[in-house]
Amino acid sequence: MKPPRALPILSVVLFAAAARGEIIERVIVKVNGDVVTQSEFEARQIAAVQQARVTPDQVEKFLRENNAHILQEAIDDLLVVQRAADLGIKLRPEFVKEIIEGIKKDNKIASDEELQQQLKREGMTLEELKRNIERNVLKRQVMQRELENKIAVTEDDTKAWYEANKAEYTKPATVHLQQLLVRSDPRSPSLAVELVGRARGGEELAELAKAYAAAPHKASVSDLGVLRKGDLAPDVEKIAFALAPGQVSEPIPTPDGFRILKVVEKTEGSVVPYEDARAEIQRRLTQTRSNEQVEKYLAGLREKAIVDLRVREVPLQLTGPTPAGATRLEPAAEGAAAAATASPSPAAAPANPDEEISTTPQTRPERVAPPPTGTPTPSPTPTPPPPA
């Protein structure tokens, strides 16, 4: 007689939960044995919707486009937390409590009861907040230990980037010009000279153009806007940039007559010194390297992971609070900022989201009620596998 086949641990846990009358839910994905439940996935959906400030009528469209990305982030989070366990990184419960107390203080929340009410409005329980804090602190510590040397930016790196991108820190000289065109015989500059004199005497170019708008001279005025060096023909540019604000040029011959330029405003070119740009460049390089190294690191964890996607369908409608009127709790300090909400860095969505997870509506997870008093606990029987 063949010995009975052992049940999967997950099935045993579910039946044990049923016997105790606890809530069980659908498992979305297993990652090296750890699971993401549907309620946890929905909590991530709510957080993503709130962070993106999606209006209620756009929730379904947003989830259809982002569910695969949200799932990948959930998988990556588990992988990094598992890596923390491999490295022996643990978090003291007192540290989590300190962060929560800081959140209460910064948000002027007087008691745990008030905190729980606020969390409920945001679709989260206190235990979920503690878990998020713990997971995100562990992720930050893992990333710091594993990647800190790879994302360090040296002084030579910063200087080299500044020199290669100096144009970005160079502000060109500019001139704001008005132009009066006078159509006349280019061999007879008398009218143009007269208009220059009147403009230098204080008359506006627009008024002069109006006075000479009729034939045979037909003067017209235009605002050329703010121009940089290189925007004008070299001979005209030389004249324009030699003038001070308010000055009027001599008549400049054209094929149809003359042009007269007036400088409205002028700025000198400048270059942001390296010392002034240094901090911003370091931040930019550090962020770029961090994103690259984190994605590379996560890709390495994914290659070694055993990921078992247990469902093909996830909900497109939220059962928690929608973004309207939502107020996110502010973390107590910079060190807790990512701890309460975000992942260590944005994770890339799968190459083809449709192969990872479909987005058709789904009923709520099954709920298991307590067995009636005196009813014997049913013997475990194999649970049919989730839909492929």
Provide a compact summary of the structure.
The chain is an alpha+beta fold. It is 47% helix and 13% strand.
Describe the overall structure.
The protein has 13 helices and nine strands. By secondary structure, it is of the alpha+beta class. The protein has two domains: 25-154 and 284-356, Triger factor/SurA peptide-binding fold; 173-268, Chitinase A, domain 3, CATH 3.10.50. The strands form three sheets. A four-stranded antiparallel beta sheet has the order 5-4-7-6. Strands 2-1-9 form a three-stranded antiparallel beta sheet. Strand 1 (27-31) and strand 2 form a beta hairpin. The longest helix has 31 residues, at 274-304. It starts with 8 loop residues before the first helix and ends in a 32-residue tail after the last helix. 22% of the residues are buried.
Structural class, from helix and strand content?
alpha+beta
List the helices and strands in order.
HEEHHHHHHEEHHEHEEEHEHH
Q: What is the mean pLDDT?
A: 77
| Number of DSSP strand runs | 9
Distinctive features:
disordered C terminus; Triger factor/SurA peptide-binding fold; four-stranded antiparallel β-sheet; Chitinase A, domain 3; 9 strands; elongated; disordered N terminus; 2 domains; three-stranded antiparallel β-sheet; 388 residues; 47% helix; alpha+beta; 13 helices; 13% strand
